[in-house]
Amino acid sequence: MKKLINKAEDVVREELQGVAAAHPDLVRVQFDPHVVIRADAPVQGKVGLISGGGSGHEPMHGGFVGMGMLDAACPGEVFTSPTPDQMFEATKAVNGGAGVVHIVKNYTGDVMNFEMAADLARAEGVEVESVLVDDDVAVQDSLYTAGRRGVGTTVLMEKIAGAAAEEKRPLADVAAVARKVNDFGRTMGMALTSCTVPAAGKPTFDLPEDEMEIGIGIHGEPGRERMKVKPVAEIVEMMSVAVVEDIPFASGDKVLAFVNGMGGTPLIELYVVYNEVNKFLQARGIEIVRNLIGNYITSLEMQGMSITLLKMDDDLLKLWDAPVKTAGMRWGV
Amino acid sequence: MKKLINKAEDVVREELQGVAAAHPDLVRVQFDPHVVIRADAPVQGKVGLISGGGSGHEPMHGGFVGMGMLDAACPGEVFTSPTPDQMFEATKAVNGGAGVVHIVKNYTGDVMNFEMAADLARAEGVEVESVLVDDDVAVQDSLYTAGRRGVGTTVLMEKIAGAAAEEKRPLADVAAVARKVNDFGRTMGMALTSCTVPAAGKPTFDLPEDEMEIGIGIHGEPGRERMKVKPVAEIVEMMSVAVVEDIPFASGDKVLAFVNGMGGTPLIELYVVYNEVNKFLQARGIEIVRNLIGNYITSLEMQGMSITLLKMDDDLLKLWDAPVKTAGMRWGV
Asked: What pairs with residue B291 in β-bridges?
């Protein structure tokens, strides 16, 4: 294992110390339990938006804390759910009197722990709405999941629901917007290489030098199929068909197309992928009205990518375009 | 070789097609010869700012074309200098009557070709100033270089000189600001792994499973020393000492600290690196007044990082903070 770390057990703490040192204008970091909190939280009268999950997916979620996106993020150890304690602390820290939305990716540990945290918060009089993300079309159940996994759509949900909260929409409305994003968003991922969790010290899975895995999860969970590496046009075709036919997306639809790198894929390849996605959708009469290309929900140093499509309407477009100021996504301010 | 590409010889063209499809609001892409041009170029009365170099370092340079940064970028084949033809086309396309600055990284091919392009442009009456970037403290001469290599400081120069041009400062002043950035900026890089140029099909160099290379160049050129991988605190100490003692940076100095990923390094590790850089500089009384953390000048999928320090004064701070709107760097707008 070659990594830019000190001790494996200190990676998350030291990363968060780096975040705290780098971005005091955006966030404050609380340790033991670890929570990344928007610098000016709680914002009075605004719905608080929190998410969390295992570390190793940066910039998600800690890099998305700030104006127009999350109010707090709960980072677990690498690929390990955060504790109810972290989520409860985050919920209290961001409650400005208008309630709190929990964005929960559909992994068994995350779901269970966020439920416990929501119960604890409600017992103290904080209104909490939970919104599940389960957008991964690759597999029905998975290694850490009953039902579909929550993947790329999470990033889009955090941006869009964050903008709705910034407009001071009430709790039920912010939760409804977030649920609409989940209803309208679909994702599929693939990997060329594995990744190594620091505490494990060896690759999560083995992938032969000429093979790829289609439908991979963000922790390296098995996907749909292993096969020989193909030209990217064929890879994008396979994945896009699975995504498009799931809702289904139809001719005339307007979409946000999100090409996400898994952490170790160079940007030059992500633009080659985007070029293929664009051609695929044009041929089906589906119009890309917004795009996002880069490493946003990653799996450590894994090489690979995911394709997310989100069906857009006027409200979602307006919320997507609204200003955002975080370490991982910024525009308009 | 596992890559998300079709044919190796089509990578750059297809990447640029992806850029053109993704960012028509920011840039237009001209093919044969390839040039990425700011959508509203030429801007009348504004100095035009162009750069270029081999592809494979994305988002540099094409991702930095837009308001407040570059007016055009000339992408060569992967790790191959662009042609004088590309640079001449770019120079003409961005000339708004106030002259053009060429930002040239110090590699033999880039220097020679930019000189030819400048001569061609001057023969057509366009005023051109060339600014060399040679900020890499690792080695004096290198595989493709007489003198020091141009690396991380290039990104900061493009931002800062871009802001000066946006203010409509005259040609000599924009060039002077760019030269100040080169005088005040120093960088050193390291690699944990090699990278594979698509057309070559095999890794540029071999690095044993337990070794790293300190002082690596952005094309995998040899650095100062190969050694066993060490804890990141020791790696950062070695590199930071080399950077700090070069100008030298002294107690009381204000700096921009830029921790750059080589393309395959996960963000979680870059923040662990930043934490160490921050501690190192604090102990020496050097104050970080701005920072930049992420993958900005990359070497395909290489795992590794570079540390750049830029001594800041009031004018550089103001220009750094000015609005920028590009695919790879954006704030204030």
From this structure: B257
Which residues have C-beta within 8 Å of that of residue B36, sequence separation ≥ 6? B16, B19, B27, B28, B29, B30, B61, B62, B65, B72, B73, B74, B75
| For range B12-37, the mean pLDDT | 98
Of B55, B270, B333, the CB nearest to A268: B55
Work out the minimum CA distance from A8 to partner chain B, whole angstroms.
10
Threshold 0.90, pTM exceeds: yes
Least Cα separation, residue B21 to chain A (angstroms) = 7
What is the pLDDT averaged over residues B176-184? 98
B213, B232 contact by CB (below 8 A): no
Q: What is the pLDDT of residues A227-269, one digit of tens each?
A: 999 999 999 999 999 999 999 999 999 999 999 999 999 999 9
B333/A330 CB distance under 8 A? no
What per-residue confidence (pLDDT) applies to B145?
Answer: 78
Instruction: Answer whether residue A33 shows pLDDT above 80.
Output: yes
| Options A34, A57, A61, A102, the catalytic residue | A57
Mean pLDDT, rounded, for B283-303 = 98
Helix (H) or strand (E) holding A244: helix A232-244
Over residues B187-224, the pLDDT tens digits come to: 999 999 999 999 999 999 999 999 999 999 999 998 99
- Please report the pLDDT score of residue A76 as a whole number: 98
DSSP 8-state secondary structure symbol assigned to residue B204: S
Return the structure tokens found at B293: 């953390």
Q: Mean pLDDT across chain B, nearest whole number?
A: 97
All domains of chain A, ordered by start, with CATH?
Answer: 8-184 (3.40.50.10440), 185-321 (3.30.1180.20)
Decide if A34 is catalytic: no
Q: Which of B23, B34, B57, B61 is catalytic?
A: B57
Residues 6+ positions from A112 with CB-CB distance below 8 Å: A81
Mean predicted confidence (pLDDT) in B166-180: 98
CB A298 within 8 A of CB A304: no
User: CA–CA separation, B251 vs A45, rounded Å?
Assistant: 45
Cβ-contact B168, B151 below 8 angstroms: no
What is the CA angle A185-A218-A112, rounded to 5? Answer: 80
Residues 6+ apart with CB under 8 A from B197: B56, B78, B79, B204, B300
Of A21, A269, A332, the CB nearest to B275: A21
A309-321 pLDDT per residue, tens: 999 999 999 999 9
d(CA B130, CA A300): 40
In angstroms, rounded to a whole number, what is the distance separating the alpha carbons of residues A218 and B164?
A: 42
- A61 included as an active-site residue: no
CA B108 – CA B98 distance, rounded (Å): 28
A-B contacts (CB, under 8 Å): 176
A201: its two tokens: 């010290």
